[in-house]
Amino acid sequence: MEELDRSRAFAKDVKRIVVKVGTAVVTGKGGRLALGRLGALCEQLAELNSDGFEVILVSSGAVGLGRQRLRYRQLVNSSFADLQKPQHELDGKACAGVGQSSLMAYYETMFDQLDVTAAQLLVNDSSFRDKEFRKQLNETVKSMLDLRVIPIFNENDAISTRRAPYQDSSGIFWDNDSLAALLALELKADLLILLSDVEGLYTGPPSDPNSKLIHTFIKEKHQDEITFGDKSRLGRGGMTAKVKAAVNAAYAGIPVIITSGYAAENIDKVLRGLRVGTLFHQDARLWAPITDSTARDMAVAARESSRKLQALSSEDRKQILYSIADALEANEKTIRAENELDVATAQEAGLEESLVARLVMTPAKISSLAASVRKLADMEDPIGRVLKKTEVADGLVLEKTSSPLGVLLIVFESRPDALVQIASLAIRSGNGLLLKGGKEARRSNAILHKVITDAIPETVGGKLIGLVTSREEIPDLLKLDDVIDLVIPRGSNKLVSQIKNTTKIPVLGHADGICHVYVDKACNVDMAKRIVSDAKLDYPAACNAMETLLVHKDLEQNAVLNELIFALQSNGVTLYGGPKASKILNLPEARSFNHEYCSKACTVEVVEDVYGAIDHIHRHGSAHTDCIVTEDPEVAELFLRQVDSAAVFHNASTRFSDGFRFGLGAEVGISTGRIHARGPVGVEGLLTTRWIMRGKGQVVDGDNGITYTHQDIPIQA
């Protein structure tokens, strides 16, 4: 559930922000100002200021900058003999006094260039003990923020009563990290951002290759697991101090992000809810598990919960689906908010339009998903149906019944609506489920998973449906052939092939969706144009969209071919030709007939007749869905009988190849294999069979004394 953290952390509108920049960010090698980084930081803060945010800056770096300047001055004023003597450490308070004016001078110069006014506020620990000081501080800062002034805070180390900067951690605050946390609370900020020289908080020293970035800090989970490295090379406390300050602020109600001050636009990314740095929040423990579950733990828990689900009455299982449908509609705004973040991230990353299109969750799509879940609930209970009943011998009756497969592992890309379809099918069929969605939809998947599992009663448990959030867990899951019964990959050819090659678990699915529409010479032209247009344009990114248009050669002569081409091109479809069509129509030649565009593009080729179309489909198709448009019934029947695909249509768009449109309620995927299900896979494809025998004390005893009758018994409805 870690994917939910950013949107939940900023559930309310962020207005007032405290940004703390560390010494390691402010200064570079030798203690000199890192002008480039500071310039980029000032630009980000100025932009936020102009956008209406109230920005408060807490800046370290004065002591380091002052030390560098005083060392230079000491060097200039020293004789050669002086330099041979042992050099004493410079007084930290003197360094602070010299460095503070230099640091502020830079900020003023930079902000002036950006048409922003900045103000310096130096504070001491002892001042915060005075109630009147705190009141005046709030009034002064409010007045500055109303005037769009950026207050810049620092501890007044030059006259601090501490024994020495960096050596005394006593008091109300003890460094600029804790000062930033204190100011965030005192000034009622909506967000605190601590900028460091690393990406965030790691499980160990960032230089250790085994250390992993912690995206969401959970006190109960992480406080005893983290190994801190050295403190800051220049500052007072390093990451230890930042974590302490962040925890204090977060558990007092201020969301905190620790992230890198080296990366441009990180502050902007934080405010847009993007997953950068480490989040600290008082509710973090509610969003992610405190203890890590292994892949086996998840699979075993899903199996145990599935057995509890199967033990419920048919009506109770149906009610779970109704509750899920209601929850989807009730949480539409939350789902869309998460989904919009995914879409924005995908667009920013430059993903193809077809992939972005698959991501989008519109109100209509959410409503349609809820309707499909209710349709599933209203279907006949698939579990425990008697498929065959036989009298084996007198008084000995055998029944073949439908039964859940067990635990399913579904790996899918991009489409978050697939999660809802798959989860509802798993519940209807009584199966446990493990889901791994694409990183493009991680926020959408996380909120949908939460909405669904929250609707599952405690008697079954939310562990019925596990959400796998890391790609690293997939190889471990694919090894669990003793607890996972079926893998269904939904995605690219590469994804499906990789999974098939790395697991002993049965795999159901299709690698490609290269669907064909063959327009015969005996077609109804208007019908052909409607079907061809719908098959390509209704949803170009879908696996059942037309990718190749095959046209009978005679249609070139009567201009029907040109009408079909115009119908596609006038709607923005990019066309590529096969060897024949490219010459006839002057189209760029397709690189391959085996290409799935998943966009407003397709291949066109001219064939001799229906036999040429069938041969082309068998050589270049993916056995998904293929269609013929013709008014000749003999040609149609020939095509329907001989095309060896999972779905073959006559005078109907390939877009009908869908579990919901087939009346299956939903689909877990489309299988182009032959074992054990083919075509759109609904509830029935997620079932197996088992045998139930009822007797009256019969024994085999070498088959002596028993007469086998093997008579079929009618199944009562």
Automatic annotation (TrEMBL):
Record keyword ATP-binding present: yes
GO BP, sorted A to Z: L-proline biosynthetic process; pollen development
EC code: 2.7.2.11, 1.2.1.41
GO molecular function, one term: ATP binding
Protein keywords: Amino-acid biosynthesis, ATP-binding, Kinase, Multifunctional enzyme, NADP, Nucleotide-binding, Oxidoreductase, Proline biosynthesis, Transferase
Listed InterPro entries: AceGlu_kinase-like_sf, Ald_DH/histidinol_DH, Ald_DH_C, Ald_DH_N, Aldehyde_DH_dom, Asp/Glu/Uridylate_kinase, G-glutamylP_reductase_CS, Glu/AcGlu_kinase
Reaction equation(s) it catalyzes: L-glutamate + ATP = L-glutamyl 5-phosphate + ADP; L-glutamate 5-semialdehyde + phosphate + NADP(+) = L-glutamyl 5-phosphate + NADPH + H(+)
Domain Aldehyde dehydrogenase, chain residue ranges per copy: 291-558
The Aspartate/glutamate/uridylate kinase domain, residue ranges: 15-260
Pfam families reported in the protein's UniProt record: AA_kinase (PF00696), Aldedh (PF00171)
Biological or metabolic pathway of the protein: Amino-acid biosynthesis; L-proline biosynthesis; L-glutamate 5-semialdehyde from L-glutamate: step 1/2; Amino-acid biosynthesis; L-proline biosynthesis; L-glutamate 5-semialdehyde from L-glutamate: step 2/2
GO cellular component: cytoplasm
NCBIfam families: P5CS, PRK00197.1, proA, proB
PANTHER family (alphabetical): DELTA-1-PYRROLINE-5-CARBOXYLATE SYNTHASE A (PTHR11063:SF20), GLUTAMATE SEMIALDEHYDE DEHYDROGENASE (PTHR11063)
HAMAP family from the UniProt entry: ProA, ProB
Family: In the N-terminal section; belongs to the glutamate 5-kinase family.
Job of this protein: P5CS plays a key role in proline biosynthesis, leading to osmoregulation in plants.
Protein name: Delta-1-pyrroline-5-carboxylate synthase
Organism: Brassica campestris (Field mustard)
